[in-house]
Structure formats: structure tokens, C-alpha cells
Design brief:
The protein has three helices and five strands, in the order H-E-E-E-H-H-E-E. The chain is an alpha+beta fold. The chain has a five-stranded antiparallel β-sheet with strand order 3-2-1-4-5.
Length: 138
């Protein structure tokens, strides 16, 4: 089949109607942390975002911890525990004076860390994540 034949086939495909599924089912996935960022959207919502490259699935997973009024205490506790697990560092209130600088500093320490991403949906239908770092299979 020539490139012209392949392109002709592509011309007849409507890529705008194809639905892509970016979700992952509950379970365990082996991955490598690629990035940690602190983000703020146009409405002012802030969050920490871990980008994890899932090896077998050849996908990226964005593990986000949103800092909304309802979730900030829970997610800051979770963030503190994740960082302690990945780096051994105990975060303090002073670390959060500049969240962007904190994320950049921690990014340098955790990029390349191998983790098992565990996904579990709670009774309210929200999928939660955690990272496990012991006994890495790869």
C-alpha cells in the first residue's frame, strides 16, 4: 500500500467524532513520575499535578490534588504524605510560602521515581489515587 493510498483512507476518516477514552479502571499500574507542577486556572482554583507515565498502558496519568475550600486540608495532607514517601522530606508551613517554587524544587527530586499507581473509586463515584513505592516490578 502506498502513502497515497493510506492518505486517501485517512481523508475518509472523521477524526472529530472519534471518542477517546482517557480514563483508567480501578487497579494498580506501574509508572514513572515525569513531572510535578503547581497550577492555577482562570477561576483561581489551585492544584498540585503529578504527571505519571504508565509503562504497560503507554499512557500518561495526571494525578491532581485540588486546593478547593472543601478539599484543601485533605489534599494538603495527602500531598505531604506523598512527598514524605517519595523523598523522605517532611514539609513545613514555610515550604508553602511559594507553591510554584516548592513544586519546582520537589520536581527535581521526584522525576524518574518508579511508583505503583493505585486507583480506587469511592462510594461517591470519585476515583482516588495513591502511590506505592515498595517492591517495584521493573
Amino acid at each position: 500500500m502506498s502513502l497515497a493510498d493510506i492518505f486517501k483512507e485517512l481523508e475518509t476518516t472523521d477524526f472529530t467524532t472519534e471518542k477517546k477514552d482517557f480514563s483508567l479502571k480501578d487497579g494498580e499500574y506501574d509508572g514513572v513520575i515525569e513531572k510535578l507542577e503547581f497550577k492555577t486556572n482562570a477561576k483561581g482554583t489551585q492544584w498540585f499535578s503529578f504527571t505519571v507515565n504508565l509503562i504497560a498502558e503507554n499512557k500518561k496519568y495526571f494525578a491532581n490534588l485540588f486546593m478547593t475550600e472543601k478539599t484543601v486540608k485533605w489534599n494538603l495532607t495527602k500531598f505531604r504524605d506523598i512527598i514524605k514517601s517519595l523523598t523522605g522530606e517532611t514539609l513545613t508551613a514555610e515550604d508553602f510560602v511559594n507553591e510554584v517554587a516548592l513544586a519546582q524544587r520537589l520536581d527535581a527530586e521526584i522525576v524518574g521515581k518508579e511508583v505503583t499507581l493505585v486507583l480506587e473509586t469511592n462510594k461517591n463515584g470519585f476515583q482516588n489515587f495513591k502511590f506505592e513505592t515498595d517492591e517495584m516490578p521493573f
